[in-house]
Amino acid sequence: MGLSYLVYPGAHHTRFHHAIGCMHLMHKAIQVLRFKGVEISEEEEKALLSAILLHDIGHGPFSHAMEHSIVNGVSHEYISLQFMEALNKEFNGTLTLAIKIFKGEYERKFMNQLISGQLDMDRADYLKRDSFYTGVSEGNINSERIISMLNVVDDQLVVEEKGIYSIEKFLVARRLMYWQVYLHKTSLAAEQLLIKVLQRVKELHKRGGAIHASSALEFFLDNEIGKTDFNEQILETFSRLDDIDILSAMKEWQFHEDFVLSNLCKILLERDLLKIKIKKKPIKEERVQAHLNEFINKYNVTENEAKYFVFSGLIENQAYYIDKQNIHILMKSGKIVDVAKASDQFNIKALSKPVTKYYMCYPKK
Q1: Is residue 121 included in any domain, yes or no?
Q2: In the 3-class helix/strand/coil scheme, how is 206-248 assigned residue by residue?
Q3: How many domains does the chain have?
Q4: CA spacing 20 to 30 A to 82: which of 89, 94, 222, 240?
């Protein structure tokens, strides 16, 4: 949940909770599909449960907020796969099928859809879980009902027609949870600050400045790690990182002599965040520059330093993708129709269009 707890104090649940929940839902999905005559062997069952249990193991500290900050351009899915490969060696190849399903290389395509599709067990768990812990009731989906409506036709996951209203609710819930929780303006501002803390630390470290951190965090500050660099040693070092490494480091860095680093850390630790404005149209450059000039004059810093406190960007929200792993509805006639066409709700088609909003962050007066 990144820094969502700054907005929703109950959002302290962990990715471990989520992984166990996903595994529980996968077990239910397997039971439902078997009951409907879909053959799933014991080996496939074990592979599905293992894959969903490990699907997010590659997330680093503060999840998506720092996904590309500690390592360069390496997604959590890629790191998850590296962990799975390493565990597969340790357990003498028992995860081979799980990895195949995770990568979408197994011939029974519906199995990958259960792990990484638009109606997977991952989303079925996190929407309900995050809704519960944040108290945002709009995200409360009926995952039990959705799972009970699943079936398989021609190796593709489908939802029986009578479950269409639950799917409509699921897609609307996803859209609302993104705007109200995952892309909430306050947690967005906090997460951007966190990214900028790491950015500044790396900048100072390159100049030869002394930076105190845990040995694991220090390793990633010392080295630029990209996709091709991941070996067993780096993977092991990455596994030692969590939120505590970052928080304890920031508690030290708030007293650093560098104006930018110390103030970024204080802003986050004292929860005295930047002001954020979100607009439907791009922010005019002159507005950003006006805030930059004001900050430069007030604190006598360079423009580069001021840009850590005054910046703009964009966010996107798309609840349903028509062009990949569509959600198919199995009609009573036996015909298979995409949910956007099967639904009598006009807003389902609207949910398949990306909505872009623009934001600007700057210090309070």
Answers
A1: yes
A2: HCCCCCCCCHHHHHHHHCCCCHHHCCHHHHHHHHCCCHHHHHH
A3: 1
A4: 222
Domain that holds residue 346: 4-184+327-356
Which residues does residue 107 pair with via DSSP β-bridges, in sequence order?
Answer: none
Look up the CATH number of the domain holding residue 95.
1.10.3210.10
* 219 falls within a domain: no
- Cα separation, 357 vs 344, in Å, equals 28
Structure tokens at 291: 């805030």
Q: What is the pLDDT along the chain (365 residues), one digit of tens a residue?
A: 999 999 999 999 999 999 999 999 999 999 999 999 999 999 999 999 999 999 999 999 998 878 878 988 889 999 999 999 999 999 999 999 999 999 999 999 999 999 999 999 999 999 999 999 999 999 999 999 999 999 999 999 999 999 999 999 999 999 999 999 999 999 999 999 999 999 999 999 888 878 899 999 999 998 889 888 889 999 999 999 999 999 999 999 999 999 999 999 999 999 999 999 999 999 999 999 999 999 999 999 999 999 999 999 999 999 898 888 889 999 999 999 999 888 876 677 778 888 999 999 999 87
Q: How far apart are CA 100 and CA 196, in angstroms?
A: 37
Q: Give me the phi and psi of 108, to 5 degrees please.
A: -90, 90
pTM beyond 0.85: the answer is: yes
* 314 neighbors 185 (Cβ within 8 angstroms): no
| Assigned domain for 349 exists | yes
